[in-house]
Structures are given as C-alpha cells and as structure tokens.
Specification:
Elements: H1 2-6, E1 11-16, H2 20-28, E2 34-38, E3 48-63, H3 76-79, E4 84-87, H4 95-103, E5 110-114, H5 117-126, E6 130-134, E7 146-149, E8 156-164, H6 171-187, E9 197-202
C-alpha cells in the first residue's frame, strides 16, 4: 500500500525482530528509523514521537477440558492457583502480568515461557495448564481445543511505533511515518501486529 501511495516500487523495507532493549538502542544509534515497542517499557519516553498501534488486552487461554473452561471470565486470584505459561521476558509482555498479580499480593506459578505465542498455545493444547496472551494473537482456528477467558481485572499493554525526536528523518522515513498515522486514523486499529523493527532503504 505504501509503495503505491508513494508511487515508488523500488522502495525496500528491511524488517526484522529484536528485543525492545535492542530496538531502543538502535534508534539512539540511528541504525533504524522506526521501531514497534511496548509503551510502558520505554525508559525515556520524552525522547520519542509515538503513534499508538494497538491497545492489547491480555486474556487467559485454557484447554476446553480444563476446570476453568466452564467460566466465562477469570480472576487473577483464580489464576494464581494454576501453573501458567507466559510470554518470555524479552517480549515485554510478561512484566504487566507479573505486576498485576503483585498489586493484589498474589504470586505467579510460572510453568513455562516462550517468546512465540503459537508455541505457548501448542503447549496449553497438550496439557492442563493456563496461558496469558494478548487477545489478538490467540489463534483458535489453528488451536480449536482452546478457549479464551477474558480477565475480570483487565490487563492492557500499548504497542506503539516510535522514532527519535532529535533526528533528521529522511523524506522516505517521514512519508512512511505520516502513512502509518493516517492509515491508523482511518482504520482505527490493526488486527494483527508483530513485534519488529524497521529500517528503510531506497534504491
């Protein structure tokens, strides 16, 4: 879409995954133009311009045979009595979960972790544990034996596109930044967003 809007088919997008810590480091080093990160874990948010990509709600996911599957919603207290699979620390999505439990004086029984939501969903399909994932990455089409349970105490994490304020951005990078803003303004939100960083190259 951007190539058609910009009328330049020679634009090349260099897209790759990385940890939030490395994305922010690379932005400061001018090794990339735009990064997608979790707003809550940006160490110096005033250094960056940001655009909200999605406000991700965490949900519990269980095997349909799990005792909790009879519920329509679940509490943190109920979850604290069960082994949990969580996204690993480098995804920056484990911290808000741990904090939510801690705020209620509850401990978390972490049975396993992975940076890959599909791996976690596969594990929960094969066992009677529970996982906590962003609602928009739960894939019931691929894992039909699972059930989504919304949280009675919602946990949210904001995914944002960021770029350094004190940087002279190329015409192409500025055009793409504007494209993101107006595209999201029209669509209001994206259904699927992955954790990645972007570096633009034009030939």
């Amino acid at each position: 879409l951007f190539q058609k809007e910009y009328k330049n088919d020679s634009i090349n997008f260099d897209i790759s995954e990385n940890t939030q810590k490395d994305i922010i480091k690379n932005l400061y080093n001018n090794d990339l133009d735009i990064g997608l990160v979790r707003l809550e874990k940006i160490p110096e948010p005033n250094d960056f311009n940001s655009i909200l990509i999605s406000d991700d709600e965490m949900v519990a996911v269980v095997n349909k045979k799990h005792p909790l599957a009879k519920n329509t919603k679940v509490t943190l207290k109920e979850l604290s009595t069960h082994p949990l699979f969580l996204l690993s620390k480098e995804t920056e999505l484990r911290a808000p979960v741990i904090e939510a439990f801690a705020n209620q004086g509850l401990s978390v029984n972490i049975h396993g972790e992975s940076p890959r939501p599909k791996i976690i969903q596969g594990m929960v399909t094969e066992c009677m544990d529970v996982c906590l994932l962003p609602h928009n990455v739960v894939d019931l089409a691929s894992f039909p034996d699972l059930k989504i349970l919304p949280m009675k105490e919602p946990i949210y994490s904001k995914l944002v596109a960021i770029r350094l304020k004190e940087t002279r951005h190329s015409e192409l990078a500025q055009a793409f930044w504007d494209f993101i803003f107006f595209f999201l303004l029209i669509l209001s939100s994206l259904k699927r967003v992955h954790y990645f960083k972007i570096k633009f190259r034009s030939f």
